[in-house]
Amino acid sequence: MGSTSAQTNEGLGRRDLIKRSAAIGLISVPTMGFLSACASSDSGGNGKVEKGTKSDKNPLGVNESAPLDFVLFDGGFGQQYAKDAIKVYETNYPKATVKFTPTQKITTTLQPRFNGGTPPDLIDNSGAEQMDMGVLVGQKQLADLTPLLDAPSIDDPSKKVRDTLRPGIVEMGQFDGEQCWILNYAYTVYGVWYSQKLLDSLDAKYPETWDEMLAVCEKAKKKGIAAWTYAGKHPYYVPFSLYPMIGKVGGREVLDAIDNLEPKAWEHPAVKACFEAYYELVQKGYILKGTPGLDHIQSQTAWTEGKALFIPNGSWVENEAAKTMPADFGLAVSGPTGLDASDKMPFGTIWAAGGEPFIVPAKAKNAEGGMEQLRIMLSEASSKNFTQSVKSLTALNGGTDGIELSPGLKSGVAALEKAGQNVVNPRLQDWYVALQKEKIGVAGIGEMMAGRATPAETIKKIQKFADEAAKDSSIKHYKHQ
Questions:
Q1: Which helix (H) or strand (E) holds 327?
Q2: What protein family is recorded (predicted)?
Q3: Could you tell me which residues come within 8 angstroms of residue 357 by beta carbon, excluding any fewer than 6 positions away?
Q4: Phi and psi for 377 in degrees, rounded to 5?
């Protein structure tokens, strides 16, 4: 989502949580294979650098002269924010040298290093070749980041790093128990994105109930505008607004049951009602014609051109679609429209969660250095630098004071403020990547939104996929604590 690479790497500026479906077939099997291999490798247990002396200035005990090896996913966020943070590390530890490797091919670059037991000290595990987080954790390939979380923050040493983070960041890095394996640096607001200018031209306001949604859709249709579009070739984007709607209608416990792969979780009345609501958009012709054949860039372009009013997406869209978005577009985001007053959670309920996952390998030679680099990145100065340059929030709870926020970022902050504690965070997409994308997304929701399957057929199919995953002993299973 970097402001420059969104234009130069249009098809690659994608976030960690959603990889290209085309890449899945190429990546998922090799990823599993290489992780199995590196789990059996015993060649990397040696060579760890000697720890430094802990002090107020060096709370993690970084070896001040040890080299640091940092591999960054070079996607939509670009490289500059990381380079700027590295300069701070080099200033603080002038005897240390930092090897910095930006790449769009995380698995290809790191497979031989993991297999050889010589992984880097810090990795931004993102992009189309992202390594499967659940597998990494299950194979014990990651270092526990608790020392980082319990270290004093750079800005206020009286506070631990964990106490400066946005809601859900620590929990997203946990899979079993209290250990935290992943630090998601970016903070993404998922929801229904739209042009305030276009909505105003329809003399409409964002709909809070489904009847209101259908009325706005009909208004748009009469003006020759499609109400909705989405990444038809990557229909796992649809859940960015559908999942929080399910949570709003039925409560968090419905989403938790789905994440936990519980029997009949997908058969909950809230799921049925929300699927039927979205299917109504299809039946009434409110979806932009040809949407099932569009990829994420094509659907976003049609939307920025005013051909469609609403699109389910994440906050990276402001930067990724910047090339085609008019200056007066009035980018805005809202939590999902609900059904009616019977919904369990209030209007404003939204899905917001960490993204851009940073990890420190268990066999890293300089794990303390990797964590210290993350501690620097979680300072207010580094956070503001990131937010200003790539139009995205960070995991730091704050860091926006004194910054002139872009329209989408301003709307995202307002949406978070409106949501308050009503923020949901479905975990399927990081616990069970293939299930969420290939099966639930493409084979399930994608077929329904293309009009090729009814909600009842889709729910039955998805529940079968979930039951198969729950019974698959080769899959590491996770549950909400």
A1: none
A2: Belongs to the bacterial solute-binding protein 1 family.
A3: 16, 124, 125, 126, 130, 133, 173, 182, 183, 184, 185, 430
A4: -65, -25
**Token representation of residue 393:** 């929030």
Which DSSP helix (H) or strand (E) runs through 355? strand 350-359
Condensed to tens digits (0 to 9), the pLDDT of residues 153-192 reads 999 999 999 999 998 899 899 987 889 999 999 999 999 9
Round to whole Å and give the CA distance between 476 and 135.
Answer: 7
Look up residue 346 and give its DSSP letter.
-
Nearest CA to 64 among 38, 93, 90, 86?
93
Q: Which residues of 30-105 form beta strands (DSSP E)? A: 68-73, 98-103
Pairing of strands 308-314, 183-195: antiparallel
Q: What's this model's pTM, rounded to 2 decimal places?
A: 0.79
pLDDT band at 37 (very low <50, low <70, confident <90, very high): very low
DSSP assignment of 429-451, as one string? HHH-HHIIIIIIIIIIIHHHHTT
Q: Are 367 and 121 within 8 A, CB to CB? A: yes
Longest dimension (CA), the chain: 70
Q: Rounded mean pLDDT of 393-405?
A: 88
CB-CB contact of 214 with 226 (8 Å)? no
Q: Where are the beta strands (DSSP E) in 379-480?
A: 393-394, 423-424
Paired with 165 in beta bridges are: 396
Q: In the structure encoding, which two tokens stand for residue 73, read together?
A: 């996913």
Alpha carbon dihedral 330, 350, 173, 175, in 10-degree steps, equals: -150
- Neighbouring-strand partners of residue 312: 192
pLDDT of residue 46: 57
Residue-wise pLDDT for 207-247, tens only, equals 999 999 999 999 999 999 999 999 999 999 999 999 999 99
| Phi-psi group of 130: left, alpha or beta (phi > 0 → left; psi -120 to 50 → alpha; rest → beta) | beta
CB-neighbour burial class of residue 79 (10 A; exposed 0-12, middle 13-18, buried 19+): middle
| φ, ψ for residue 182, nearest 5 deg | -135, 140
- Taking the C-alpha atoms of residue 86 and residue 284, their distance in angstroms, rounded to an integer, is 53
SS3 state of residue 11: coil
203: tokens are 């003399």
Q: Which amino acid is residue 175, in one-letter code?
A: F
pLDDT of residue 32 exceeding 70: no
Torsional sign, CA 181, 93, 399, 192: negative
C-beta separation of 368 from 74 below 8 A:
no
Residue 354 has pLDDT above 60, yes or no: yes
Return the closest-CA partner of residue 120 out of 363, 371, 377, 374: 363
User: Does residue 302 have a pLDDT over 60?
Assistant: yes
Provide the 3-class DSSP secondary structure of residue 402: coil
Comparing CA positions, the residue from 67, 186, 71 lying closest to residue 123 is 71
| Token code pair at residue 4 | 């420059």
| Enclosing H/E stretch for 461 | helix 455-471
